[in-house]
Amino acid sequence: MADRTSVRVPCPGNGANFVRLTNEVTTPGGVGHPANTGDCELYLHGVDRNGFPIHQGLVSLDPGQAMSWYHAPPGAVAIAAQCSVECDMRGELTYDTPNT
């Protein structure tokens, strides 16, 4: 079972302005059923040990768009959501979190 979680994603986004969705323990499992429930284009990407975005494996989600699963690229210690640099409206991502 999983619970749906919604997080605000700060807009406009940049390489230092993103929201971590996972940590080192939960990153290998990925993020289930991520959906862009905000007004801005969002990006899902990995974060390296130094806190920098990993652009390999970056996925873009338009408002209203969803996907079945997102897995971080090799070397990622976290998965993050980032708003488009060109948007100053509301960013929001809704995704599954394990229900334990």
* CATH fold call: Jelly Rolls
Total individual domains = 1
> Structural class of the helix and strand makeup?
mainly beta
Radius of gyration, in angstroms, nearest whole number = 12 Å
Describe this structure in words.
The protein starts with a strand and ends with a strand. The chain has about 100 residues and is mainly β. The model has no long low-confidence stretch (mean pLDDT about 95). A hairpin with a 5-residue loop joins strand 4 (about 40-45) and strand 5. It is globular and about 30 Å long. A 4-stranded antiparallel beta sheet has the order 1-8-3-6, with no helix packed on it. A 4-stranded antiparallel beta sheet has the order 2-7-4-5, with no helix packed on it. It has a single domain, classed as Jelly Rolls. The protein has strands at about 1-10, 20, 30-35, 40-45, 55-60, 70, 80-85, 90-100. It has no helices and 8 strands.
Essential attributes:
8 strands, 100 residues, four-stranded antiparallel beta sheet, Jelly Rolls, mainly beta
Summarize the model shown.
The chain has 100 residues and is mainly β. It is built from no helices and 8 strands.
Lay out the secondary structure.
Elements lengths: L1 E8 L9 E2 L10 E6 L5 E6 L5 E9 L7 E2 L7 E6 L7 E8 L2
Antiparallel strand pairs: 1-8, 2-7, 3-6, 3-8, 4-5, 4-7
